Amino acid sequence: MEFGNSLKHAYICIKSIIMSFITFNDRKIAYQLAGKGETVVLLHGFCEDKRIWTDVEEELHRYNFRTLSIDLPGFGNSDLLQQAHPSIEDYSADVYAVIQHIKLAKCFLLGHSMGGYVALAFAEKYPVLIRGLGLLHSHPYPDTDEKKADRQKQIKFIVDNGHLLYIKQLIPKLFTPRFSSSNQFTLDTLIHRASGSNERGIIDALTAMIARPDRTAVLQNCSVPVLFVIGKDDITIPTNASLAQILLPEISSIHLLDKVAHMAMLEASRQTQLIIRNFLVYCQQLSQTRKNF
Questions:
Q1: Do β-strands 38-43 and 107-112 pair in parallel, antiparallel, or remain unpaired?
Q2: CATH 3.40.50.1820 at 2-144+213-292, yes or no
């Protein structure tokens, strides 16, 4: 039994590092496609990469879902954008390029934090491709003037001090103090991964987030269910923004998590896996019901 478990663990480790690439606009985009069934597209957040979804992917594979996780430009193993003024729409174009490459007609689309901004931009342009939309610690609103100024300060800090010091200060703030104090290995892992990101890629992402428009209408006009995962202790996303958005879609699945900040996939790992899986099953059932009528 122990030997079997060791083999399973080894398989999971090997599977987690297998990735594919496409070339789009003379740039490399890294992605991982795994599992069988209807496809769930997973978009990571700022200073993350597709590995943030590993536990969620393994859960979904057990329930007959296929997952497509993508490294957004400048993170993980994907190349930088080449635009002088990068936008969230440029990131969503990469997502569309991968989806077109694998000939995907429909998908569920989930995004964490910045990945949620990208998901909303994608949903605005390609609504017919989406069967369900998920926003984890994200929202459709543009940056306030205060937030824009704060991001500009972050850019200046990176330029002056380098991205390594920036990341070391950023990552712990994404978690509750309680989680951080008892999960140092997790934080160190995320810091190590983010440290491998290109410095310009981080600045590009901050620049794109500053410039993103209001996408309230995307949720108001959304014809598919929308999942909201909100951390009660999240200091990154304003509570008023998190709560205001939940009434926008026609159909919402709302989860407000206790003792969770900005990283539900890690702070409440099992709970988040079940929330996502149940949401996807609900979307499937609703789609079938609509077909019957």
A1: parallel
A2: yes
